[in-house]
Write a structure and sequence with these properties.
It is built from three helices and six strands, in the order E-E-E-H-H-E-H-E-E. The protein has a single domain, classed as D-tyrosyl-tRNA(Tyr) deacylase (D-tyrosyl-trna(Tyr) Deacylase, Chain: A, 3-Layer(bba) Sandwich), CATH 3.50.80.10. Strands 1, 2, 3, 4, 5 and 6 form a six-stranded mixed β-sheet that branches. By secondary structure, it is α/β, with parallel strands linked by helices. Helix 1 packs across helix 3. Helix 3 links the parallel strand 4 and strand 5.
């Protein structure tokens, strides 16, 4: 999920571990069992070029920063009962390298990338600009 933001930050145990202080994108990134490094690369390229910033420009057009936060809860299954199932989310040992590969790919494209901390309880703050929130898939 991608949100256009005017600024955003991630705090873990009282410490700011990632922040962007100008317009850019907050990327809430989930991984499932069948995701691959090739898909992470394709998604990174798509988000880097996504024309949703002011004036229909992309991060690649204006050098806007991205804050990437791993978010396994995007794969919650809420069809049965009141307790979500997380079985569709990739386990940490699969998801963490994919999240890292996604960020590395963005940096290789020239992006300024900040991140949360994988597996930590994070306080995410943002000002959604627009609001613009998109689910992006490859």
């Amino acid at each position: 999920m991608v949100q256009r933001v005017s600024h955003a930050s991630v705090v873990v145990d009282g410490e700011t571990v990632g922040a962007i202080d100008k317009p850019g994108l907050l990327v809430l990134l989930g991984a499932t069992h069948t995701d691959s490094p090739a898909e992470a690369e394709k998604l990174a390229g798509k988000i880097w070029g996504l024309r949703i910033l002011d004036g229909e420009r992309s991060c690649s057009d204006v050098g806007a920063p991205l804050l990437v936060v791993s978010q396994f809860t995007l794969y919650a299954d809420t069809r049965k009962g009141r307790r979500p199932s997380w079985s569709a989310a990739a386990p940490g040992e699969v998801a963490e390298p994919l999240v890292e590969h996604f960020c590395t790919t963005l940096r290789g494209l020239g992006a300024t990338v900040e991140t949360g901390r994988f597996g930590a309880h994070m306080d995410v703050s943002l000002v959604n600009d627009g609001p613009v929130t998109l689910i992006v898939e490859v």
